[in-house]
Specification:
The complex is a heterodimer of chains A (309) and B (364).
Chain A lengths: L6 H30 L6 H5 L9 H8 L1 H34 L4 H9 L6 H12 L14 H8 L14 H29 L3 H9 L4 H29 L3 H7 L15 H8 L4 H29 L3
Chain B lengths: L2 E10 L10 E11 L4 E5 L6 H9 L6 E6 L2 E2 L10 E4 L11 H10 L9 H14 L15 H13 L5 E5 L7 H18 L2 E6 L2 H7 L2 E6 L2 E6 L1 H6 L4 H6 L6 E8 L2 E4 L2 E5 L6 E7 L4 E3 L5 E10 L3 E7 L8 E6 L10 E6 L4 E5 L5 E2 L2
Parallel strand pairs in B: 3-8, 3-9, 6-7, 7-8
Antiparallel strand pairs in B: 1-2, 1-4, 4-5, 9-10, 11-12, 11-14, 12-13, 14-20, 15-19, 16-17, 16-19, 17-18, 20-21
Helix pairs in contact in B: 2-3, 2-4, 3-4
Classes of the chains: A mainly alpha (309), B alpha+beta (364).
Amino acid sequence: MVDSKQQWKAWLYLSPAVVLLLIFTVWPIYNTIKMSLLEGFTTMGSVNGVQYQFGFGNFTRVLQYPGFITCLKNTVLLCVLTVPISTFLALLIAVCLNAIRPLQRLLQTIFFLPYVTNSIAIGMVFAAMFNMIMGGGARPDSVGIINNVLEALGLNYINWLNYGSSYWANIAVMVVYIVWNALPFKILILLGGLQSVNKQYYDAAKVDGTSKVRTFTRITVPLLSPMIAYVVITGFIGGFKEYSSIVGIFGESMGPVGNPYSLDTMVGFIYRAIGNQEGTASAAALILFAIIFVVTMINLAVSKKNTHY
Amino acid sequence: MKVELRNLTKIFPSRNKKSGEEVVAVNDFTFTIPDGKLVGLLGPSGCGKSTTLYMISGLQKPSSGQIFFGEEDVTELSPENRGVGLVFQNYALYPHLTVKQNILFPLQNLKGADKLTKDEMLEKAEYAAKLVQIDELMDRKPSELSGGQQQRVAIARALVKMPRVLLLDEPLSNLDARLRLQTREEIRRIQKETGITTVFVTHDQEEAMSISDMIVVMKLGVLQQIGKPQDIYDDPTNLFVAKFLGTPPINVFSGRVEGGKLYIGEDAVLDVPAIEDKNVTVGVRPEGFIPDENGAFTCLLSNIEVMGRDMSIVCKNEASLNPIVRAIVNSDIKVDYSKVNVKFALKPHKVFIFDAETEERIYF
């Protein structure tokens, strides 16, 4: 404990962080709450001296807006699909990486590269891989590299993201892209966890004749459970804020040509409301916050039961 | 189950690729551990004792040589097929499982014909837990146990499948002094009750001497001596073994043999007619001194430590290779504190003569 006479020193040392947090976190949160509770608030109007009434109209407007349900559905769907898939794949890759000796460092670096690459740039590359280039004929001039692979396997090509593409094809592209993007961080965390597991647990399991599968499910996963809980929770939080990945693939129309905003997300909704209806944007941001909060609480409650520290 | 090592050798490749020097951790071991005995592998760190243990367990592959369990060559068998139980130095209990789950774990791995029903498993687990006296703690997690209790759980886990050979790596090193004493008795008792051939590794000679039926003394990967603890203590084959065994340690002097007499300094302490003249190293056990006015061996009296039943006469001698000479005598014997020198006669069977160059024992 700091001596009470010395407390001013502690505050002094904390002050840079506290001041920055007050300016860039607490003040905006306060303002967001304030704006959300002023009926039909806009910054433009506020600057011009318009007085707004207190009320919950912004919240009801957000909930009644038809596009909002689409946003919520897309966000939840992407979360529920990508977090388990990416966590499972990351665990698999981390275990494999941990098991090999030669090239481990090199592969570790390669797997980490997406993390340090611009996500919009990656999105454009993914879009190019799935994109079809139409020509005059019945068959597109180019079907994209992914479809080439499908056709090489004897399957029909799929319209992934061009005009007339189906919603589920679009979602599939997004899932592949988001999972690929989410892997490096998860692999890094899980590999770090694996490398800190005492090797003697595996020696003990070996002497006891434990099968590979059982060693994985009964020893590796429980010992990694704190890290798994961490990547799942942060994965869900990140997933609910999904936006730039969709812009990366589909551009700001948030959907394929001819069907804009079909892949809109919560954050997309909030961004578009900024600039003309800040009250609505604030209300939507608070709703998103409430959803993330509840989901994280559920996550924590579940992981508490299944995590062994 | 008898365990036999034949020309067992383990060579580790050099860490430093440039120098290319290999490390011979275990060098050409050949010895037999008789069935149902408790055997201690003893030596200072880096002597290859743990490597030997891990090779017996199958976790490490020998570079050459063979290992037999009974008449069966197990050299190429993987650990799970050898039927060994292994207790790790830090126990390696699964932290997320309860004591009961930890003990059940090896049984749940059994497949095919060996597969047990739940009741059979529980019965075996409870038997093992009773054997090590932890049946009260079955629902606790390892983190809720003391070091000694964790040790017992680890032994129960190793014993639950009734292995052919039980292996313990430094079983007492993580325990405090009092618990160490208690646990070593416990290991002895468990071994006697189960009759399982048990091999344990230790660097503590007292530990090895006190509970082993047989000890194997090793140094830098080379086998030094095998035998019953008392036999090795009474009859060491070289200076290393003599120095390594016994507390307080043996007193070592530089000496010489001249005209059939053994000299320490200028004192002719023993008649050794069979040895030709040469420089030697002399070891004298602390209990090998008899205070005697007419004794041949003179030391400078330093102080006396009384320990009740016994007392230590601490003195100095110019020929001593240790800083002090310590003699342990019965406290009934009266020593004149006022004198500068103290004279001793030596018990011949407590005196060992070693070649000054090779440090090998010279019998007289």
